Amino acid sequence: MKIKKYILLFVITLIFIPMLNANTSTVREIKVGFEIKAPFIIKNNKHYEGVCIDLWEKVADSLNIEYTTSEYTLMGLIEAVESREIDLAVSPLTVTASRIKRVGFTQPYYITNLAFATRAEKDKGWIDFFSDLFSMDFFKAFSTLFFIILIFGTVVWLTERKQNPDQFREGVKGVGDGIWWSAVTMSTVGYGDKSPVTTTGRILSMIWMFTAVIVISGLTASISSSLTVHKLKASVSTFDDLRKISVGCVPGSGTAEFLEHYKIEYKDFNDVESGLTAVDHDSLDAFVYDEAILKYFVHKDQFAEIIKVIPSAYFKEYFSFASNDDQLLKDINEVLIGIIESSEWENDLEKYGIEYRD
Q1: What pLDDT score does 67 carry?
Q2: Count of CB atoms within 10 A of residue 66's CB?
Q3: Which residue stretches of the chain are H helix?
């Protein structure tokens, strides 16, 4: 009887121990590194959060990975991955030709544009006002308005000149009477010195009254826009303008590599906030970086009314995790696609004020 019990216990042991070992082996411990880069990596005291932190936690849970974390600078982070000091970098690293020779990358989880932040052009006073007053945009708007007034004034004069000669005279003076009536009616001044008496003239007057309300509001906005456009324009409007002005960037970033490739000189700044502050203080014309991150800091630091973020179609930046462990990259890619295609991913981006893109 005792022999049967021992045999049964032995069989149970043979069955369950491999199962326990199998479950234990699926838990993997790795070292993870990152660079603080809000809103993707945010540090609150000793607590870390952000888009990349949330995303990595979902990946780690799916792969049953346990991990320790370390904080690095951008340069130090890439070197740590390259030397295998850490197993994975979860910062929003831009995939570039030079980096891909040193480390491996997962598939991108977010795509953004290179953009430049520049101070909105200042109002330079009366000189700019009179310059815009006599600009081509102003002339076009004014000419359009006068042409419409001339048409309605002439048509009413043609219908009134025979039956109402006292108010709408013959010849050139009569055309002037029609223009005067049209302008007074449009502006709703209503002097009453000229008014149609024929049925056709009055019908045309009613049509002009209602039309004028729409025309004057639209053209007034157009004229106003031409006079104040310098307040809305940025001092930089195209990427080629960066060659003519002082530019700032974070050294070692994917954006810096792009500027260096196209031989655009730039000043070094340790972080985005210091670069935007330089733009705000007029010591820098434009700060170039990732669009999503620039927009985050512009609104976070209340620069929205002062600094404009202008995206560029010249260069797209692909954010990925980095590692030199091929198996780890393969495992992450298998679950990453499912996460970024879920509605939760869109919610995570919106949570940190980042624009969602399909």
Answers
A1: 95
A2: 9
A3: 2-25, 51-63, 74-82, 97-100, 126-133, 136-160, 171-187, 199-232, 254-261, 272-280, 291-300, 326-340, 343-351
Pairing of strands 110-119, 286-290: antiparallel
Closest CA to 319 of 28, 48, 50: 50
- The whole-model pTM stands at 0.59
- CA torsion angle for 181, 185, 188, 189 (degrees, to 10)? 10
Inter-residue contact 308 to 120 (CB < 8 Å): yes
What domains does the chain contain, in order, with CATH numbers?
2-110+320-351 (3.40.190.10), 126-232 (1.10.287.70), 235-316 (3.40.190.10)
pLDDT of 12 strictly over 60: no
Phi, psi of 124 (to 5 degrees): -95, 10
Residue 356's pLDDT is 74
